[in-house]
Design a protein that fits this description.
34% of the residues lie in helices and 12% in strands. The protein is an alpha/beta fold. Strands 3, 4, 5, 6, 7, 8, 9 and 10 form an 8-stranded mixed β-sheet that branches. Strands 1-2 form a two-stranded antiparallel sheet. Strands 11-12 form a two-stranded antiparallel ribbon. The longest helix is centred in the last third of the chain and has 18 residues. The C terminus is likely disordered.
């Protein structure tokens, strides 16, 4: 029997017929139709797509997401990628290099999974610093929770792929500036302490100051050394795809870096209707083509930093969105100064005030009382880092080279999109994990590296 192309994911189904729509639950069919542009019920779909949509239907029904009415209903990344639920990054530690961090409830409330915090510019930094809020806390808090958050503030709905992985957080700058050499110092620290904290994956959602050849650049050479030492180094490619030269900076320009660009999947569940995000792309100064892969880089649910004016504003908007008209004005009067635009609209009639609330929900990218949606390759990279953790949970013997080979081999190209912008294509989470399992030694089950806390004092960076 000749292969049959699935009209939803466009992959060929060798020697098998498509599943007839008449045998599929009606709610599942509605979900397929809403996420696969141009698809018709009469076309049917493959077993793999059916499984993904049935899983999504159950999750959307049972977990009862409390999207703020009028806000964009952002779907969880794990659902959009079709990630296998049985793997959650158990036994794997991921190091994050970023401008700053915060011990968000999605990382510590159910179980504190932060093994170590380090600031390369402050030898006196301590774990308790993660409970203090600063403008530099935002970015790293969001990148780390996008990858490893367990969704504690969303009832588990907005969890990262590696929601049971452990974390090592390395601050390499501030919201105002991250220096090229400080990223290198942070990565070198991770290399030295990789065994102490069982680190297998590193995520770098920041870039250096300038383009440089990996033959001379110390940061790029640290990436090469990290890979040789068994670390998968995931790097954001940058967001300058529309800029002249669209430069790819170190560490993403290093040959062995798993460099990640952005995909606009339009907040859909299907492998259809994909568009490119404005990611930076090569060639690098060494003539290397980057990025290697792309992953969702827009419409990503990320937590709001607790205790900030932004958190107060998002919470108020979420309350207003769910309140009946008669309660809108009393709620605003209870919260003066939280949102100047809402303050200015207090005298509006209820229907106009309702419209203003909906506008502010969209302006602020509000998803719910604790989450907003963000974009950038800074979030595409940790998604791939979390997928790497799932693959290592499934097969701890994978080398960085083997893991990268699996990811590019199972990736899906976007038809019609410039190959130089998408690399080998969109990561396929289910296929990548399945291939990792397939390569597992037959005589042994999946292995993880046990974490054994050390009492040794570690030298400063």
């Amino acid at each position: 029997m000749s292969p049959v192309p699935c009209p939803v994911c466009f992959l060929e189904v060798p020697g098998a017929e498509l599943v007839a729509a008449r045998s599929v639950d009606r709610d599942t069919l509605r979900l397929v139709a809403g996420n696969a542009p141009g698809w018709r019920v009469s076309q049917g779909l493959c077993d793999a797509c059916l499984g993904r949509f049935e899983t999504a239907r159950v999750a959307l029904r049972d977990e009862r997401p409390h999207w703020a009415p009028g806000a964009l209903p952002i779907l969880p990344t794990a659902l959009r990628l079709g990630a296998p639920a049985e793997y959650r990054g158990r036994g794997v530690s991921i190091a994050f290099l970023d401008a700053g961090f915060f011990a968000h409830p999605d990382l510590v409330a159910s179980k504190d999974r932060i093994l170590r915090y380090l600031d390369v510019n402050d030898p006196g930094a301590r774990r308790g610093d993660l409970d203090r809020i600063s403008e530099s806390s935002w970015h790293g808090m969001m990148t780390s929770t996008v990858a490893c958050g367990d969704g504690a503030l969303s009832g588990g709905f907005y969890h990262g792929l590696a929601c049971e992985a452990r974390l090592v957080l390395v601050k390499v700058g501030s919201a105002r500036r991250i220096l090229h050499d400080d990223i290198r110092r942070g990565l070198d620290w991770v290399i030295r302490h990789r065994r102490q904290y069982a680190i297998r994956v590193v995520n770098v959602s920041c870039g250096g100051d300038y383009e440089a050849s990996y033959l001379a650049d110390r940061l790029s050479q640290s990436v090469e050394r990290a890979t040789k030492e068994g670390l998968v180094v995931c790097c954001a490619v940058g967001n300058q795809g529309d800029a002249p030269g669209h430069p790819v900076l170190p560490p993403g320009s290093a040959p062995s870096a798993l460099t990640v660009g952005g995909l606009d999947d339009q907040n859909r569940l299907a492998f259809a209707g994909f568009r490119m995000y404005h990611s930076s792309y090569g060639p690098t100064v060494d003539g290397l083509q980057k990025p290697d892969l792309i992953a969702p880089g827009i419409f990503i649910a990320a937590p709001v930093l607790p205790g900030t004016p932004a958190a107060e504003r998002v919470a108020l908007l979420a309350r207003l969105a769910q309140a009946p008209d008669r309660e809108l004005l009393p709620l605003l009067e209870e919260s003066p100064g939280v949102d100047p635009e809402l303050d200015a609209g207090r005298r509006l009639p209820a229907h106009a005030l309702r419209g203003l609330v909906k506008k502010r929900l969209r302006d602020e990218n509000v998803v719910s009382a604790h989450y907003k949606h963000v974009d950038g390759t800074s979030f595409a990279a940790p998604i791939v880092a979390s997928l790497a953790a799932l693959m290592l949970e499934a097969n701890a013997r994978l080398t960085p080279q083997e893991l990268k080979h699996i990811l590019v081999r199972t990736a899906r190209r976007i038809p019609g999109a410039d190959p130089s912008r998408q690399g080998f294509g969109v990561v396929d989470a289910a296929a990548a994990v399945a291939e990792a399992v397939k390569r597992r030694p037959a005589q042994k089950a999946a292995e993880v590296i046990p974490f054994k806390p050390s009492n040794r004092r570690t030298p400063p960076p």
